[in-house]
Design goal:
Order of helices and strands: EEEHHEEEHEHEHHHHH
Mean pLDDT: 80
CATH architecture of the largest domain: Roll
Shape: globular
Number of helices: 9
Strand order of the largest sheet: 6-5-4-7-1-2-3-8
Helix content: 40-55%
Low-confidence stretches: 144-161
Structural class: alpha+beta
Distance between the termini: 48 Å
CATH superfamily of the largest domain: Bifunctional nuclease domain
Strand content: 25-35%
Largest sheet: 8 strands, mixed
């Protein structure tokens, strides 16, 4: 079965499930989008890797990477392999000493791991046909909004400073807030603060 390459286009709060997030994957050579609802912790793991934020302690997917490297395993690719009764399934394709094998996984965990190994993500035509969204002029506008939406949980939105507030803070204060956010493992807040600091450099 021919594989179709996907790219990560964005993360946003799910409108249908509170506390969940929509991970939007896009067809590399087409206009179809594949939204997958994932949990908050998996969304955080994906977001901090995309944002290249280094946590103070290894997260679960970082531990997997260290474990795999220590035992001589390599990750070849991630495949969104199946869709049953509205639930997506994935496989992590690995190899060790030339032996290739697959590990079953939730798509969110597989993608979080795939990002850490910088490997491609694929799916099959049957899955895109069943669950993909074809962009029209209307849906393209909605998807653009979705891609620009920052990944935030409802409680974190309330406590996160607005950009206006960050603009008025000194660089020293921003650094202090960044360290505090990293200590608390609040990576979404850290990303916002880091972005403001980068704008000033």
């Amino acid at each position: 079965m021919e594989k179709i390459k996907l790219e990560i286009l964005g993360l946003s709060s799910s409108q249908s499930q509170s506390g969940s997030f929509a991970l939007v994957l896009g067809e590399s050579s087409g206009n179809r989008r594949l939204p997958i609802i994932i949990g908050m912790f998996e969304a955080q793991a994906i977001a901090i890797e995309i944002e290249k934020i280094v946590p103070n302690r290894p997260m679960t997917h970082d531990l997997f990477k260290s474990f795999a490297y220590s035992l001589g395993f390599e990750i070849n690719e991630i495949i969104i392999s199946d869709l049953k009764e509205g639930v997506f399934f994935a496989k992590i394709v690995c190899n060790r000493d030339g032996d290739v094998f697959e590990i079953d996984s939730r798509p969110s965990d597989a993608i979080a791991i795939g990002l850490r190994f910088n490997v491609p993500i694929y799916t099959f035509e049957s899955i895109l046909t069943e669950a993909g969204i074809v962009l029209s002029d209307d849906t393209e506008e909605e998807m653009t909004k979705l891609q620009k939406t920052e990944e935030k949980a409802p409680a974190e939105v309330a406590k996160a400073p607005s950009l206006d507030q960050l603009d008025s803070l000194t660089s020293d204060k921003l650094q202090e807030m960044l360290n505090e956010a990293l200590d608390k493992e609040d990576y979404e807040r850290a990303a916002k603060i880091r972005d403001e600091m980068n704008k000033r450099n």
